[in-house]
Amino acid sequence: MNILLLTTHLDIGGISNYTVWLAEALNKKEHRVIVASSGGELLTELNKKNIPHFKVNIRTKKEISPLLLRAGSVLVELVNKKNIDLIHAQTRITQLLAYHVSRLTKIPYVTTCHGLYKKRLIRRIFPCWGDRVIAISEPVRENLVNYFKLPKDRVRLVHNGLDADRFSRHYSKEEKEKIKRDYGLKEKGKVVGNIARLVKVKGQEYILCAAKEILKVRPRTQFLIVGGGEEKDQLIKLAKRLDITANVFFTGPLKKVEDVLAIMDIFVFPAFWQEGFGLSILEAMVSGLPIVASNVGGIYTLVKDDKTGFLVPPKDVPGLIDALLRLLDDKKLASQMGRAGRELAVQDFPLDKVVSQIVDVYKEVL
To answer: Same structural domain for residues 10 and 80?
Structure first.
């Protein structure tokens, strides 16, 4: 098949990561893939795999934008020139774009919904769901079927997946010490880590508030926050106000997260909006880390409470403190949960299975 993957940009983040690994996996299965986006840091990953990228200026959050009209005309030419069989859109902006291109070219399109949506006016006027809609978790599927009233036979549940081998490398003590030095961490002291965009709904402020109390009883604990976003300056200011900057470290966004996961002892994810799935949680689980996460959206699909980690209510700082201290104080429990999480992730979310399910959706449409 000739497949056009559409995403708004390739900046480091969940949807961009999904697009890149899907392109690589489809390429390995000998499908011809073109990724179209506004570009970003992860473009280098496509280049390494010799996957073509078509740059188109669609870096906007506005659903009605002249950028989309101009981009649509350009993509119609691309679809016709490259004999594209199917378009697969990853974001709301590219859903609208795919709808426009599909109408003009008669080429079918599929969309993936990476989160839970609200019934905004533009969505009602231009639903643009696609010939099939892939939901990445059961709560996302329920949101589409029960809230937006999409017919069940148009929605396919396909969880995210991961190449476990990528996160299976053994790091020596010396390698871990070097990684810690590279990011300014101290050699001693357990590391509680988070990987996510630094935006309000990801809840990093609650990590800092919990850290303040945890450091009173476990003063060597270190908190590593990985990601970039609009809240970074505010989070740094909050860490200063709480007087915990000596134990809190910000790295900015990273293309290769395996290294930082290797130096973490616990992964914490206190998002309070309805997460569709939580790809960084899956990465942490494959890396053998116990998880403390908010019980929102599709996170329960991954984190089994009291088995692979702890689920706490959103915005519950005392709950975070209690769960983190239990894992910090009980090395055996943390190790058991980490092993159970890796087993679950490897067994239930293998990349090959996910890609095969997505290809089946393509075949349905075609």
So the answer is: yes
Which of 116, 112, 137, 120 is closest to 8 using CA atoms?
112
105 beta partners: none
195-201: average pLDDT: 94
Return the percentage of the chain with pLDDT > 90, whole number.
Answer: 87
What are 219's two structure tokens? 């003063």
CB of 274 closer than 8 Å to CB of 183 = no
How much is the pLDDT for 121? 84
Residue numbers of the domain that contains 331: 164-348
pTM, to two decimals = 0.91
Q: DSSP label at 171? A: P
DSSP-derived secondary structure for 13-77: SHHHHHHHHHHHHHHHTT-EEEEEES--TTHHHHHHTT--EEE-----S-SS-HHHHHHHHHHHH
Asked whether the beta carbons of 138 and 115 are under 8 A apart, the reply is no
| 198 in Cβ contact with 227 (< 8 Å) | yes
Number of domains in the chain: 2
**Are 286 and 76 within 8 A, CB to CB?**
no
C-alpha 111: how far from chain center: 16
> pLDDT per residue over 163-176, tens digit each?
888 898 899 999 99
